Amino acid sequence: MEVVICKTKEEASRKAADMIAALVKKNPKCVLGLATGSTPVPMYSALAKDVKAKKISFKQVKSWNLDEYYGLPGTHDQSYRYFMNANLFDKIDIKKANTHVLNGLAKDWKKECKAYEAQIKKAGGIDLQVLGIGSDGHIAFNEPGSSLASRTRLVSLTDQTIKDNARFFKKAADVPKFALSMGVGTICEAKKVILLAFGKNKSDAVKAAVEGGVSQFCTASALQMHQDAWFFCDEEAASKLKLKKYYAWRAEGELSRQ
Ligand code: PGA
Prior knowledge:
Elements (H helix, E strand, L loop, with lengths): L1 E5 L2 H18 L4 E4 L6 H12 L9 E4 L1 E3 L10 H8 L11 E2 L8 H14 L5 E4 L21 E4 L2 H7 L12 E4 L2 H5 L3 E6 L5 H9 L17 E6 L9 H14 L1
Parallel strand pairs: 1-10, 2-3, 2-6, 3-5, 6-9, 9-10
Antiparallel strand pairs: 4-8, 7-8
Helix pairs in contact: 1-2
The structure holds 2-phosphoglycolic acid.
């Protein structure tokens, strides 16, 4: 696991975007795993700038998103399909047909989740997966207590996540209580993983994920078992790490070798 610590979230987002841009240049048909939430927004803006400047093209890229609220249609302004269109897909040259988000209205959620996993497999697996981290250490909607071997499925959200996400809805009662989410096992199969964490609110989660034990209590800690996982943090999110100076120095060398 490499931890890149930057002064600001803008700098960390640019570095993470550079890693994605390098992959897209090297493999224009790559498969991306994408995330929603407020965290990846500056990184998506940086990628949109690169497309506008004709530095990269997503014309042949395929994407699968991590999760979707269960019960929300893709047209709902808080659905993750809507978010992806507004924050990335409408701003780059990706073909919409190549973008995949779980269907939050699927009646047979088991069938939906199984088909989603099968699609990813058929595409050759995810080359690079983008992640945020919840204040409770979750990745996608794999809340504390999720099996580290879990697959795409229907999950129940914790009170903490509902509270954290209430800022996007009119009131907390409007936040869906369930979601469809890739599992920790699904995520860990990606060839490369980039996790972004910004702000003081994420410092405990980052500490537990990087320096705590591997535990289903902090599902991001499963990335300690991944061979090519990168955390891009601002100074606040990294503030509780014991070895932050060492990580920063080591990551610099690793980044230059990428
Ligand atoms: P945030 O959410 O980016 O809105 O903080 C992250 C997450 O819950 O994974």
